[in-house]
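Q: What does the assembled structure look like for these inputs?
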Amino acid sequence: EAGVAQSPRYKIIEKRQSVAFWCNPISGHATLYWYQQILGQGPKLLIQFQNNGVVDDSQLPKDRFSAERLKGVDSTLKIQPAKLEDSAVYLCASSLDRGSGEKLFFGSGTQLSVL
Amino acid sequence: SQQGEEDPQALSIQEGENATMNCSYKTSINNLQWYRQNSGRGLVHLILIRSNEREKHSGRLRVTLDTSKKSSSLLITASRAADTASYFCATGSHGSGNTGKLIFGQGTTLQVKP
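A:
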């Protein structure tokens, strides 16, 4: 079974630039998550999709972050413009999710450095 | 917001010793999960314990859950150098729509010395 695919693996940009991350979840997984993990901290949920609909984006900084999940499969997360504090690892995860928080399968993440 | 708080933040032991990590949370949950993260990698699911369970085993892992105290512990027995990683607890609850919601704690960094 193929895992969750993310790209790019690393990205270095200057502040005020824009950046996009891509995620391909495990086939058949209805729920897709984007987490932000700052060095030394646990993952923080940014946005959660079920199929192609958003079910939770309460912690997404909507003035600069946006995400979409076209056709309920792949997803992209965009930051525009980036700030220094956005430096983090962005993790994508997916799950079958039958409504009670099943286990998540994570990708390797994209490490973003904003200079 | 972070739901779980883990203790200790860092733990260093010798190979062969047992490692115990604790997690406390604040709100009601459907399940509690533990994940491992090796440096520079994504998280890997270790074990899930449901709110109506008190103890669960998987290989060298033992998880307990005390819903009255809103706490859980992860025990790794006979640790190996390869167990060196960060360990996170995550609480699962009902989210919006028909989905679950998983909130992670800050993690415990475990170092196992050979």
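Chain B has one domain: 5-113.
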